Amino acid sequence: MPSVGRFAPSPTGALHAGSLVAALASWLDVRARGPHARWLVRIEDADTERCLPGMGEYILGQLAACGLQPDAPTVWQTRRTARYQQALDRLAAEALAYPCACSRKDIDLALAARGIGHARHGERVYPGTCRHGLHGRTARAWRFATETFTHGGHPPPLRWHDRRLGAQQQDVAAEVGDFVLRRADGPWAYQLAVVVDDADQGVTDVVRGEDLCDNTARQILLQRALGMPTPAYLHTPLVRGADGHKLSKQNGAAPIDTGTPAAARAALDAAARVLGLPAASGTAESHTLADMLAGWVEPWRVLYNPGP
C-alpha cells in the first residue's frame, strides 16, 4: 500500500512560519518515500465560526507559491458533515458517545467541588456529570465515553511511538476525561473530524506540529472505537517568538511572504533550518523552488528515516 501524508491547515488565518514548517515536513516525508507516495492537502474548516471567508483558497495559493502542490484535489471538512454524523451515530449506537448538558462553568464548578483547580489554557478533565443521563437538562454537546471504551477502572495509559519524540503515553480517562465530539454550537470537534478524514483519505503517516502531540492519544482511542487504522506519527519542532511561546494565529503570528519567488525561497529556507535541514546552497537566483525542495529530500530521509 502506498504511503499517504497530508497537511491540514485551518483557515482561521494565513500560513505563518510555524505552519510552513509543518507543511514542508509533511511534503518532504512523502517525497522521501518514493514516486508512489502521495501528499494531500485538507482544509480543516469544520469550525465555521472561526474560519475566515476566502482564507482556505488563500492558503492553497501560499502553498502553490512555495512549490508545495498536492497530489489530489483538496478536501474541505465542511463538505463532509454527513460522514462525521455517521461516525457519531455508530459511537452512540455502541454506547461510546453520549449527550452532555454541561457548560464550561458547570465543569469548573464540579471540579472545584472536588478540590480540583483548572490552570488557564489547561485541560478541563471532564468529571462525568452527564455520563449516566441528562436528568431533564438540554444537551449541549456529545462526548466520547472514554471510561466505557477502556472498560472503566484504571486501565494502563495509552502508549504510542512518535518518530521524533520517541515513546509517548497518556492516561486519557484521568488526564482528559470524556472529550467532546460535537460542540454545543454545532461544529464538529477536531478529534472526531480528523480521525474520520485520515481514515477516509487513507493517510498512513501524520506529520504535524509538536503542539498537537497531546491530541494523539484521544485520536488513537477513536480510531480503535471506529475500527479505523492508526497512522504513524511525527511531531515537528515548533517555531517560537521572542517571548518563548509558539507562533500561532491566536497570538498574531505574521503571515509568510510568498509574494515573490525570492520571498517564498526565503520562507522555505527558514522552515528547513527549523527542521535541521541544510540551508539551500548557492544564490537565490541560482536555483528554483523545485531545486530547493528536491535538495532537502535526502537530508530528510537521513534525519527522520521515513522508510520505504
Note the main attributes of this structure.
single chain, 308 residues, alpha/beta, five-stranded parallel sheet, three-stranded antiparallel sheet, 10 strands, 35% helix, 14% strand, globular, aminoacyl-trna synthetase, protein biosynthesis, zinc, Glutamyl-Q tRNA(Asp) synthetase
Summarize the structure.
The protein is an alpha/beta fold and 308 residues long. It has 10 helices and 10 strands. The radius of gyration is 21 Å and the shape is globular.
Commentary on this structure:
Keywords: Aminoacyl-tRNA synthetase, ATP-binding, Ligase, Metal-binding, Nucleotide-binding, Protein biosynthesis, Zinc. GO terms for molecular function: ligase activity. Its EC number is 6.1.1.-. Belongs to the class-I aminoacyl-tRNA synthetase family. GluQ subfamily. It is a single chain. The chain contains ten helices and ten strands. The protein has 308 residues and is an alpha/beta fold. The strands form three sheets. It has a five-stranded parallel beta sheet. Helix 1 links the parallel strand 1 and strand 2. It is globular. The model has no long low-confidence stretch (mean pLDDT 90).
